[in-house]
Amino acid sequence: MNKFSYDKERFNFREIVKKMLKVSCLEEIHLESDFPNYDLFERKNDSSTIYHKKFYENKEELLRLYDLFIEECIRPRFNEPIVYQKIPTFRIHLPSNLAVGEWHRDKMYRDLSWAEKVKEINFYLPFTKAFGTNTIWSESQEGRKDFKPMEAEYGEAYEWDASNCLHGNKKNKTNSTRVSMDFRVILESKYIDSDYGSINTGTPFKIGGYY
For 186-196, what is each residue's pLDDT tens digit? Predict the structure, then answer.
């Protein structure tokens, strides 16, 4: 697991996401006057908020910045070309809720033999302060169960092995909403097409689909 910083002035994800979600403060989404109450404790409904809908319906500006971020901040981390997730995954961790409804390893949602061959690399970018019970908790290596919070300020990100490390959320007992995105990268030399579909949309794990 490796935490790193990026230029948040050049990559102003926070302001773009505020516009996408039509809110004035990401950390205080739950205090907006028209905020609907949510009970997001199951895998089947953890991506069903109005904010997920707004994010994916208004993603064009963010995707342009995301592609630039990949080019300038992610590709240089590797010594060869990469394949990356076409549309990053949106997360929102509201107070008294979860962001993802079950503890898991990402390979649980893939064809296992494919996942072991391609070795996906994960990146986690919070757009708010991520701390305590409002962030991801993960073990450091598969099977260790030494769970710790992945804490970060806006402008910091994590590279980590979510495919193999068990991770999840705790009930958010802070008074701060965490808003973030995450995405996956594969070294081009390890890339293999897969017809196996993503859990939320069924998009196949292949270039032109998920990547």
Answer: 999 999 988 88
Asked whether the beta carbons of 14 and 157 are under 8 A apart, the reply is no
Q: Sign (positive/negative) of CA torsion 75, 79, 84, 89?
A: negative
Q: Tokens in use for 78?
A: 């590797």
Cα–Cα nearest to 176, from 124, 104, 99, 102: 99
Q: 33-48, pLDDT tens digit by residue? A: 566 666 654 555 557 7
To the nearest whole number, what is the mean pLDDT of the chain? Answer: 91
Cβ neighbours around 160 below 10 Å, total? 21
Q: Which pTM value belongs to this model?
A: 0.92
Helix ranges restricted to H, the chain: 13-21, 50-57, 60-69, 112-118
| Alpha carbons 152 and 14: distance in angstroms, whole number | 14
SS3 70: helix
Asked if 187 and 122 touch (Cβ cutoff 8 Å), the reply is no
Q: How far apart are alpha carbons 20 and 196 in whole angstroms?
A: 30
Work out the average pLDDT over 94-107: 87
